Amino acid sequence: MFPDSDVASVSDEDFDLDDDVSSDAVVTCPFNLDDIPVAQEVDDDEAVPQEAIFDGLFLQQEGSQGDGPTWEQTPVTTLNLSSLERMFRINDRSTAIKLLNRRVNVVLDPDLKLRADDPNLLWKGSKHFLDFILVVSGKIGLDAFLPKTVADHNFSLTLNLRLQSRQFRPKFGKLGFDPTGSMMAIGDGQSTELWLGFCPVGNLEDIDLANNSPLLSEKHGDTRLTSVHYRMGIMFLACLLSQIPSMPVHVMYPYGPRTDFTEWKIEDATNVLSQCTINLRLQDVLLLNRLMRIQYDDFVANAPPSWLKDGWLQQHIPISVACHYCQNQPIASTDRHALRVEARNWNLERDYTIFLFRRL
Fold first, then answer.
1. Judging by DSSP bridges, how do beta strands 76-80 and 103-107 pair with one another?
2. Could you tell me which residues are beta bridge partners of residue 106?
3. Which DSSP state fits 270?
């Protein structure tokens, strides 16, 4: 764990364990009430009423602002792990309690770190677990959501187009483009988040450009679409869903009833948001995927000038991104039969040859 550059660093040498607090190493039990000086004892008549204590405890929950600083406003201190170890070794309770008033970044000392190839390490590779899978489609469409089959009566996908405020939060892997202002949450599957990522055209055409894109662990901006771009994405999906016979979706105005985006809402142009969720069968998703590939270019070409003036719609392509949270599922079984079944399941799950990136 490494501290931010704007955080003051405190090493073992310049962090005074006795700073303003006297260390008492001979105390054998903390907070012995028998040791309270007589001068600090409170008579029953001077005690704080329980009603006042209750009001103080719940004041913040009732919406009143406290007088003291918030936790985010408290000072930040960087502390070596060896300093904490020394506090424990000398039984320094006072300094440990003092640290509770600060936000502390704990840093591993150099002598406490080992390289992965250190001869003192013996790696155990007999058990493997899967916690997270990120799949990014390599072309326009919903490939990241589709299994490698044309029929599956157990398949179900739930669209939720009311997730405008959801941020894209995975910290591992790579999308092949900067997620800032480019991610649109569109639903959930079984332990899976479904996203449309509006990827720059150049990042799909040039794999080197995609490879040089930042990792998700690197700092980026707000991932949500702007309100205008979100409306564009919703209207495109609504136009596609309205062409699926089993979908109760209707579109009155593909590009909205007015030229100015501030003069209309999505509800004025389509009923796609009238349902909280939209359940899709495998055949529905396959058709939606095919329509998306066929009609996106025409949808952009026929858009009015107000949709094209910032260039965003022409310069981005909607691709599917699936985030699957596996909760440490065991994989790579040592049982040969189970391993063969597992390999078969991986091959049926998705066609991994058509993806831009995968992260396990």
1. parallel
2. 79
3. B
